[in-house]
Design brief:
about 200 residues
């Protein structure tokens, strides 16, 4: 249930603006905490799909398995990307719709106040909307900011995963070259100074 300024004013008529500011701050803090949980979950899932942590030399088998599994992880990332992208668009639309409704409401009120109020600047109307519906707007905006950051994070993960493909391919080529050199060396020990 969304807490509105009017609900708080009804319940606590003598409440100072500090309570409203705290509620607004709480909206942003909650969104930040949810974003961190999302990021930690995605990083944990990505770590599960990494070939190694940089300390071990991967075997041919693990390299080939990682190369074969690469595409399925990328497809999973793309699915998350699409889901978050849709959430982002819907949240922006929800915020814009709410704001537009309240903006028109305030503009109409100002027009009804008289001739001089008809010329209220757009910036003044914007500030009136923000002041009157600060809790609702902060809830919507915090969610919008969180989803936007999730979207950007997934984009970074996809870019990182594409770079990981280059690393896997390089490791695979290096391993193939070493195996080939090892085979040549064992067949021709005199050419490589390994003769006994």
């Amino acid at each position: 249930m969304t807490v509105t300024r009017r609900k708080i004013e009804e319940e606590y008529p003598d409440t100072p603006d500090e309570l409203f500011k705290k509620k607004v701050d709480d909206n942003y803090k909650k969104a930040e905490e949810e974003l961190l949980v999302f990021v930690e979950q995605q990083i944990s899932l990505m770590k599960e799909n990494l070939l190694f942590n940089g300390e071990d030399i991967p075997s041919f088998y693990s390299l080939n398995k990682s190369l074969m599994d690469y595409e399925s992880v990328l497809l999973g990332l793309l699915a998350i990307h699409q889901e978050v992208r849709m959430q982002k668009a819907l949240m922006e639309e929800k915020y814009d719709n709410f704001y537009a409704e309240k903006y028109c409401e305030v503009k109409s009120e100002q027009a009804n106040l008289g001739k001089q109020a008809q010329f209220t600047a757009a910036r003044e109307i914007d500030m009136l909307v923000r002041k009157r519906w600060i809790l609702e707007l902060s809830t919507l905006k915090a969610e919008s900011i969180k989803i936007d950051n999730q979207y950007n994070f997934i984009n970074y993960l996809i870019d990182g995963w594409k770079n990981y493909a280059f690393i896997l391919n390089t490791l695979s080529k290096n391993a193939q070259a070493e195996a080939s050199a090892s085979g040549i060396s064992s067949r021709n020990p005199k050419e490589f100074g390994d003769e006994m």
